[in-house]
Amino acid sequence: MPPTVQGKVGNLPLELTSFVGRRHEVTEARRLLSESRLVTLTGIGGVGKTRLALRVAEDSRRAFDDGVWLVELGEVYDPTLVPATVAAGLGLRDQLAHLPEEVLADHLATRRLLLVLDNCEHLVEAVAALAESLLEACPEVRILAASREALGISGEAVLRVPPLTAPSSDETPSLQGLPRYDAVALFAERAAAAVPEFTLTEDNRHAVAGICHRLDGLPLPIELAAVRLRAMTAEQVLQRLTNRFRLLNLGSRGAPTRQQTLWSSIEWSHELCSVREQDLWARLSVFAGGFELDAAEGICAGDLSSDDLRDVLASLVDKSILIREEQGPAVRYRLLETLRAYGNEKLRESGDRDGLHRRHRDWYARLAHTAEAEWIGPNQVSWIGRLERETSNLREALQFSLTAPGDAEADACLRMVNSLYLYWICRGLISEGRRWLDRALARSGDRRTADRVLALFGGSVMTGMQQEFATAATLVEECGVLAEELGDPMLRAAAGYATGFQSLFSGHLKGARRSFEDALQTSRPTGELQRAIGCLLGLAVASGLLGDEDRSVACYEQVFAVTAPRGESYYRAYALWGLGLAALHQGDVTRAAAQLAQALRLIRRVNDPIIATWCLETMGWIAAIEDAPDRAAVLLGAANALAKAEGGITVTLPNLLSHHAECKQRARAALGDRAFEEARRRGRGMDFRESIGYALGERRPAGPPAVEEAVSLTRREMQVAELVAQGLTNRAIAEKLVISPRTAQGHVERVLAKLAFTSRTQITAWYLERTREQEPDAQRGLDQKQVCLRVVPP
């Protein structure tokens, strides 16, 4: 085996581009390699297995006296040629008198060597057999394999290579925070290589974040997208990712053919699947955001038995097509969006796409209906969790019903939104619920059906919660007219309920009480428990605000008596809030605080921000009464933040505004304007669970945010970090500091290591953020428009 350059034994290629991210994976792979003689890096094509393997191999070189050797198997299609290919990769000549397996075993028997086998997925059995025989015969040999599927032999340690970290669809990271996502750092560095003047700016940060999210954080398509900046803006690239396979068709000529474009990379994975795996892959593309086993069985099984379906799912996981994830009590499976898009194209070619989407809609409509039917019971929390996990699929099903032709589809859409009404209310998804209800009502036209009455009822309540009383009144009026026309007592009760809430939200308390009383009497003969509970709660609120505390308490206690034995949480929390408010009005602050705390513990289980807002607000009033102004201000801020996050306001009932104003005035007078606003700001900075924990005394109030503690960089390293932030290359840094380029490179590498960063872009973001916090006015003379996270190669 001949030595390579600089006396290093082996044949690892030099890196032509910077290595970005993967700090955890490199560390974990090296740890596994120290413990196991065979480590296989698995993952979907384009995720960066080869690049990671080469970096791990390079970093491990010192541990192997006889070198680190790469054998590329991607262009080998005959399994019988694997041993000969490995032998050739080690520089061994073909010996006619001996089999390649024997030559390898004899040559490696006493050598301490790392063998890197790349692109093994199409030759798994042959590679596994060779690896097993070499490991048995050669005690000092270790093997690092890169494959879309594990080799499956004894002693193998498998490390699944995930996509690079990327912003999620609902995140809007700041310009400074964006490069901390490895996918963004990679895009920025490759974009700067393709277009030297490229920088991350306020103008393009949303597009870059969107590109990295849409491409699942996969390095291959991200690098292909970056190249497109030679002719397009980042925004144009993002817009054209609807046809990602056509857009990302320019790759490196030096890469294997199947790795030159996104389509060819995924096509290769598809060809390695069996027909059953290919068919299921296509059918699974109907799911949005993942799925659970029961959904796959109900929608995609086709002619597969339950056992066969499980086997094929497991095989797709093994081949890195599916991602298996544990979310709380559930096991979910997910296709990366890029693989889903490919599968959807195959599903379209099969001609079964519409039929499968209809089965998908029907299955999720049944799921929503079952959740509604079991809402007032012990499984309520489980159903809320399931519906939350299925948010993307529920949206997909609703969208199908809105766009599919025919009256039957319009009716199906109304039924589904009605089934989801309670979930949307409970989770505070008022704006989303309204959008779907409005669209479903528009889709149904002037159809005179019971489902339309219930949709009008739901839409009116949600609209009233957002203080749009004129729109709500229109919906209530149509709801009442249609309910009377159809003559169903249950529908008349729903219309009365809607009228009561409209009156309650607009401050007409006597009218609200009368409507709730009538609706309650109408609903009782129907046995419709949910409507009766809703009327009782409305009647309790109206009575309490009218000063009839005894009747209010009686209604709340009746709700509690009905729901507690059933193991329900949401309505119990609502009733406890009302009982706490009543106790406060009666002057019993201790009992009020205890009931509100109990309500918060229940509401934390169902993640309802609306009742949580009411409880936090009311506990703020109690804090002001008890001369705890700082706590009162924090709680007011926390309640305000939760309400704003859900598109609502803190106090939805105008008759309670006086309590809010009095609490605010007391706290401000006690603290002074500045301290009051600071305390309220701290409350606004809390999320749902933090604010509840604070209210329950489970966490201390957050103090003013401290300036980030300085990382232990030396004075010279801080100078280097500043110059990196100015966009200087290593050579330019060396000239500036009058040091050698190698010394400058060493300083940059130490800064990266100390900050746990993987790119110069991240150093720039960190430095700008640090100087902004320490010197917000001066910025040490840095012109952010010029620096603007400029990326340059080292």
Describe the structure.
This protein is mostly helical and 794 residues long. Among the domains are: 138 residues, Rossmann fold (3-Layer(aba) Sandwich), CATH 3.40.50.300; 95 residues, no CATH class; 78 residues, Orthogonal Bundle (Arc Repressor Mutant, subunit A), CATH 1.10.10; 90 residues, no CATH class; 57 residues, Arc Repressor Mutant, subunit A (Orthogonal Bundle), CATH 1.10.10. Helix content is 61%, strand content 5%. It has 38 helices and eight strands. A five-stranded parallel sheet has the order 2-3-4-1-5, sandwiched between helices. The chain is globular, with a radius of gyration of 32 Å.
Helix content: 55-70%
CATH architecture of the domain at 23-160: 3-Layer(aba) Sandwich
Radius of gyration: 32 Å
Mean pLDDT: 85
| CATH fold assignment of the domain at 23-160 | Rossmann fold
List keywords for this structure.
Arc Repressor Mutant, subunit A, Rossmann fold, 61% helix, 794 residues, 8 strands, mainly alpha, 38 helices
In short:
The protein is mainly α and 794 residues long.
Secondary structure blueprint with pairings:
Layout: H1 23-35, E1 38-42, H2 49-59, E2 68-72, H3 82-89, H4 100-108, E3 113-118, H5 124-137, E4 141-147, E5 156-160, H6 182-194, H7 205-214, H8 219-227, H9 234-239, H10 244-247, H11 262-271, H12 275-284, E6 291-292, H13 293-299, H14 306-318, E7 322-327, E8 330-335, H15 337-350, H16 353-373, H17 380-389, H18 391-403, H19 407-426, H20 430-444, H21 450-465, H22 469-486, H23 489-505, H24 509-523, H25 529-545, H26 549-563, H27 570-585, H28 589-606, H29 609-625, H30 629-645, H31 657-671, H32 673-684, H33 688-695, H34 715-725, H35 730-737, H36 741-755, H37 760-774, H38 784-787
Parallel strand pairs: 1-4, 1-5, 2-3, 3-4
Antiparallel strand pairs: 6-8, 7-8
